Structure formats: C-alpha cells, structure tokens
Amino acid sequence: MKPFLATFLALACVHPLFSADAPKTAPKPPPAPGWKSVKPHTPEGFTLKTLLVEAHPEHNVELLVYVPDKDGTWPCILDIHGGGWKARQVENDKPLMERLAQRGFVTALVSYRLSTEAKYPAAINDCKAALRTLRAHSKELKLDPDRIGCMGGSAGGHLSGLTAMTNGLKEFEGTGPNLEFPSSVKACIVMAAPMDLEAPNKDKTSEGAMLFFGDSYQQNPKLYAQASPITHVRPGVPPTIFIEGEKDSLKVGRAEMQAKLKDLNIETDVYTLKGAPHPYWMSQPWLDETVDIAAKFFKKHLGEGVVK
Prior knowledge:
By secondary structure, the chain is of the alpha/beta class. Helix content is 31%, strand content 22%. It has a single domain (44-307), classed as Alpha/Beta hydrolase fold, catalytic domain (Rossmann fold), CATH 3.40.50. It has helices at residues 3-14, 90-101, 122-136, 138-141, 155-165, 207-213, 221-226, 254-263, 286-302; strands at residues 36-37, 46-55, 60-68, 72-80, 106-111, 143-153, 188-191, 240-245, 268-273, 283-284, 306-307. The longest helix has 17 residues, at 286-302.
C-alpha cells in the first residue's frame, strides 16, 4: 500500500467526519412562516371608547369603538370576533378595525357572551343589542345610524351572517336595552365561517356546537336550523360577501347560501386569499388584503364620511 493511501485510511478511522459514530449534520430549520402577527395600536387621530351594552351576572357585554377626533359623521362597521364561540378574541380583531377606521369609518367591536357563559341565543342577542346601542349613542360616537354594516371571522363570521340575515326578525332581538332602536345592518362580510350548522353536525355534533347550543343536533335539530344564516335568506337581506383563506375549510353552506342570494338578486361575492390560513385577518400580508376588500365593499354600500 502506498504511504499516502495508508495515512489517509488511518486518519479516516478516527476522524469524526468519516467515523461511523460521527455526528450527523443538523437538519436545516424550517423556513420562516409567510405571515407576521400584528399587535393592536390605536391610530393617531382616533380615540378608543368603551360603552357598556348590558351587564349580565356572567359577563358585561361591551362595545369598543374607534371614534375620529375630528368633527363629522361617519358610516360604522361592527366587528364580531371569532374564537369558536368560546374564546374572547376582541384584541385579535383590533388591528383590522384600526385600519378600517383609518379608511373613513367609525369601527366597533362587541364582546358578546361566550358559550361558556351563556347558551344560544345569547351571542346573537348581544350582537343585536350592540347595534342598538351604537344607534342610541350615535351622536357621541359620530356615526350615522342609518349606515351601519357588520363583519366577523370564524365564529364571528357565523354571527355576522346570522345578524345580517335576521334583519327585522324580532325573535332574535332578545330582551336587552335600547329596543326602541333597530338592529339592522346595510351590508355584511363573512370571513371563513359556516353558514349551515345542520350539515356538519348531522352525523356527530361537534364539541364547539354542543357547548354553544347546550344540545346536540340529534336532540334539537330545529335549534341548529334556526341558528344557520342560510335558513333566513329572503328578499330584503343586505348585500353579503365572503372572504376566505385558500387553506381554510370553514365554509360549509357558503356556496349554497350564495346561490340563494343570487336567486334573489342580492349582491354577493367570494374572495379567496392565496395561501391564507385560518384566521388570516389577524396577520400580514392578509390583513391588508382584507382591509382593502372590506373598505371598498363598505364604501360602496355605506358611503363616505362627512367632515364638518
């Protein structure tokens, strides 16, 4: 054996790069996620006000409202947060409402009663009460009571759709305050939410639905039908669009509800955000995409603000 080759083989037996016991190269870390979370921050030129809607033993329902500092009157958007009906995610939706406020709206968020605090129809009753409260305080909040829309994502999207589709139906109002004011909305956005609660629960009721209703579908199918926005599509319901993440699956009944709306010549559309997960509206780059879509839609149906 040549001297060079013998020396090489001897080194190879002990050198960690060639040894059978050599440490393996560490795997490369996964690529950074294509999203960036956003924290709330009240924008300059706005004041964040808190209004009590109704006090309950289990929870005080409140409105958080971004009000422009300058004098004028603006259309209003009510946000209904998600969280599977059981988690309070008002803080997560603040960045969305802050950006929409800067586009020329009074924006508000409602902290409705969760399924761990009160069963259906408590949540929808609270959303209706929040809309009535906005109208009762319209001058203080600088909003036009005739130009209010709603939007929400996930469980809040379900409640947003239900709020809009039940315009004028007294059985959904509850017994909360300001009943002399209407709870109707002129436009609605649903983000990543089921519009049919019967279909996904017929075979086996989900844990979230069981907690929300207090009964399974098999025990009370009429309750699930009543709480499904698609059940209440009828002439006169407001224009309603849908925004979905490409990677999201929470859209049961959306296509069927759109078909019903189209049959009635009620404006509807669906926007699918490329690569977006659930819940896309809480992070970039999809937060800004959502704001662009929502601002355009609400300006079309609610109009512009009037500065004094």
